[in-house]
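We were asked to recover a plausible sequence for a given structure. The inputs and outputs are reproduced exactly as logged, with field labels preserved.

PROBLEM: sequence recovery
POSITIONS: 98
GIVEN STRUCTURE:
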């Protein structure tokens, strides 16, 4: 994996690995749930906007933003991943979205 200057939305870098970003994780989880159900980036963006979920910069999600978030998370953890908090406690397991 190439080194980036930022962690993907919903994640943060801690002790050499990605951990959950406590404030962004619920939005990322919702985005992934909606995409798994609807399989349409534009539908996911519209539903997130209706629910008041915004990007890291506070803007509404667009289909491009949804695609980037999904791509960045999959790039950061290309296989199934287990996400932990700083204490090392398992908080979630996210399967790769095919």
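RECOVERED SEQUENCE:
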């Amino acid at each position: 994996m190439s080194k980036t200057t930022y962690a993907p939305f919903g994640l943060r870098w801690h002790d050499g690995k990605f951990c959950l970003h406590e404030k962004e994780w619920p939005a990322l989880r919702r985005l992934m749930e909606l995409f798994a159900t609807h399989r349409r980036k534009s539908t996911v963006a519209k539903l997130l906007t209706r629910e008041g979920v915004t990007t890291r910069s506070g803007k509404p999600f667009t289909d491009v933003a949804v695609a980037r978030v999904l791509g960045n998370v999959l790039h950061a953890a290309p296989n199934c991943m287990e996400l932990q908090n700083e204490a090392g406690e398992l908080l979630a397991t996210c399967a790769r979205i095919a």
